[in-house]
């Protein structure tokens, strides 16, 4: 079992969710977050002065999947979220030790679905 965490641009969320649906990956959590990577935020001119905003709006997508769904999830996210410009985001894959479905008490791969 793995936890796939993707940080993507907000305007690409619908494309990513549709791509995940196409690959039969339905269980996910989406959060609005702030952050910056190599682009170090953006610089804007306001009343003649340069203002730097270090934190940009991003979307964090968390998907718990069984091992057979890791690669399809990665492929779907990468294809749908890519614009080819700085700030497209990152994907992290973390080992998931266990999962418990609260309603039934099921554990492991069965609990993920």
Overall pLDDT: 89
**Number of DSSP strand runs:** 6
SSE run: EHEEEEHEH
Query: Approximately how much helix is present in the residues?
Result: 10-25%
Beta-strand percent range: 35-45%
Q: Examine the coordinates and then state which fold CATH places here, giving the name of the CATH topology.
A: Alpha-Beta Plaits
Structure class? alpha+beta
Rough outline? elongated
Rg over C-alpha atoms, rounded to the nearest angstrom: 17 Å
Number of domains: 1
Q: Using the 3D structure, state the CATH architecture.
A: 2-Layer Sandwich
Sheet of most strands:
4 strands, antiparallel
Detailed description of the structure:
The termini are close together. Helix 1 packs antiparallel against helix 2. A hairpin with a 2-residue loop joins strand 3 and strand 4. The protein is elongated. The protein is α+β, with helices and mostly antiparallel strands and 113 residues long. The chain is built from 3 helices and 6 strands, in the order βαββββαβα. A 4-stranded antiparallel beta sheet has the order 2-5-1-6, covered by helices on one side. A two-stranded antiparallel sheet has the order 3-4. It has one domain: 2-Layer Sandwich (Alpha-Beta Plaits). It is 23% helix and 36% strand.
């Amino acid at each position: 079992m793995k936890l796939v965490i993707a940080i993507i641009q907000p305007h690409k969320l619908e494309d990513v969710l549709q791509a995940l649906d196409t690959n039969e990956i339905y269980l996910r959590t989406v959060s609005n977050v702030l952050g910056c990577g190599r682009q170090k935020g953006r610089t804007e001119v306001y009343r003649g002065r340069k203002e730097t905003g270090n934190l940009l709006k991003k979307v964090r997508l968390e998907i718990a999947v069984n091992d057979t769904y890791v690669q399809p999830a990665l492929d779907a996210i990468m294809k749908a979220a890519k614009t080819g410009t700085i700030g497209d985001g990152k994907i992290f894959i973390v080992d998931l030790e266990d999962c418990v479905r609260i309603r039934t008490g099921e554990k492991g791969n069965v609990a993920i679905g």
